[in-house]
Amino acid sequence: MKKARRDLFRGLLSNSNRTSCFFFFTHRKLSSAMGDSSDRYCYEPLLRWNPQVEDYFSKAYGPHHFARISKALTHPSCYSCIRVNTLKSSPDAVIAKLLAILKEKEAEYGTENVNGSETDFGGDPNSFCTETSDSQYLDDPGKAASGPVEDFTNMLKGSFQNGPISKCQFPGLDYVLFVRGSGPHQIDYGYVDDKPPKEVVVSRKCAEAVLRGAQVYVPGVMACSSHVEKGDIVAVSVAIEQPIDSGWGSGITRGTVMQGSLTDPYYSERSGLYIGQGKAMLSRSGIFRVLQGVAVDMCNRVFRLPSFYDVLEGEIFLQNLPSIVTAHAVDPKKGERILDMCAAPGGKTTAIAILMKDEGEIIAADRSHNKVLDVQKLAAEMGLSCITTYKLDALKSVRRKNDIDDMTDLTCKRLNNGETVQSSDPMKLQVKNSASVASEELNADKTFEKTVSNEKANERTYISKADIRKNLRRMRNGPGRNQCTGGRVENSKGFAPNSFDRVLLDAPCSALGLKPRLFAGEETIESLRNHGKYQRRMFDQAVQLVRSGGVLVYSTCTINPGENEALVRYALDAYKFLSLAPQQLTSVSKTLQHPRIGGPGLVGHFEFPDGYIEEWLRPGEEELVQRFDPSSPLDTIGFFIAKFTVGSKET
Predict the structure, then answer these.
(1) Where does the chain bind S-adenosyl-L-methionine (predicted)?
(2) What is the pLDDT of residues 368-408, one digit of tens each?
(3) Any known ligand binding at 343?
């Protein structure tokens, strides 16, 4: 807890020098020699795409707009978004607790960074997101960001006038808190007289986590300078995938010694990819000897965002703004039966549960055992009891007719035998009390362990070398697909058609809207089209499960129109009883549950080289969806939300 509070304090403490632009920066300058250190020791990434994918997106958005999107994706958002669990706490109480943590730690850690320069965690609120004007939002100035996007951006700017932590002023979102960040910052890495600083090279995924506020952990370190000792100040750079014979790879063997010279692997490619400075928590030999732990304590970052790991667990949840809006789009009501088809890690599931005051029934399904456990853990932390979890492939969400008949027969047999049936709906018989089952298993396990312990108390335990090697591999590589981390997960054979009032399909996607992102070359035109086919199959399942008069919400975290607008086009053409729900900001009853914050969707189509034409939205439909553009003034991840109302299926 102390470590978590220190990370949170440091993230907020360092928000100064906010004169630099968040969105616009010059192109990377690859140096072939040592040259000017400022050209090398900086953060100026260039996102690489598959050429065909880049052409596809350039035609969809326009080349200039897509270039801005690519740049925006390499930067984290300039603020963190916190969702308060209103069933346990209140926004004002959470703000007071976070500010108390800052005040408590200010005396302990002082107000200096590693270079000894004083910082002000308050920052300059007037410089928040000021560099992206509406006329720069799209290639066509006539389509400049306006309406909800502009209103929310103005509200966001004003939120930080009174401090680094503020409540969202948008109607219906007053339980959402914004925590201001800052960056990119210029860092003095200590390059003197052609003597490069000591350096730690991390993997691309590790770097993306560091840019979001995490520390550098041992598994993420790829290479290191020689003679790095515990306590040394080191520069942290990124090894981004490069083209190799079999595809893409970092090209650096873990444990490589870096000399800071031209002979280092990918020396030029790492130019402009320095993400900060930190203190080595282990020596070089220690970093590559142990399997876990913090390798570098980041104390001077290019982007300074607070870390919320282990802070106020159960009271707050760090969540992207579009994900919170998605839960509102579902518009849950008390007592309803709601399905979250791809629920892990549970952020949207718990947000829906809180909106319906934990009164009703939410079925949270995912095909991964361990991910279902994550949903269970989060629901328990937040004290939510209306969530029932199942392991279920979304492509098999609709129960087959034979299985439904078997369940009905089981219900009749139990009634004939005088057993009490809790629900008239045979499908609900599969909902078990997971907590009581887990408790019974836990007691049984304890009894078994005690018996075995008594029987073998005097026996010598032998562990083979093979078992030791196997355990080491598991620690290094994770539990693997066929091994779970423990805990009970109920399997489901699916659900009866028309058995849910509302269904959320937050579909697995290409995730090309997530940021910060430092590499995008793995996606091809074929893989993007395959994502769309997979999502249509899941949508076919979702349509069958929601009743007439219900609501179906579809969302993704990608900028790919083939997974967004093309899916909407397919849904409206294939299912005539579906219609896009209107966004009515004038209705008091709907404003609180349907905040219109995102921008319009894309209208038109795209013809692929093989002749296939991908249809998107038609004129008049673009305002009935919400597209969150990562290059817009909102500074969110790329996201898409479509809300469908379900008419009568009889017609």
Answers:
(1) 342-348, 366, 393, 506
(2) 999 999 999 999 999 999 999 999 999 999 998 766 555 55
(3) yes
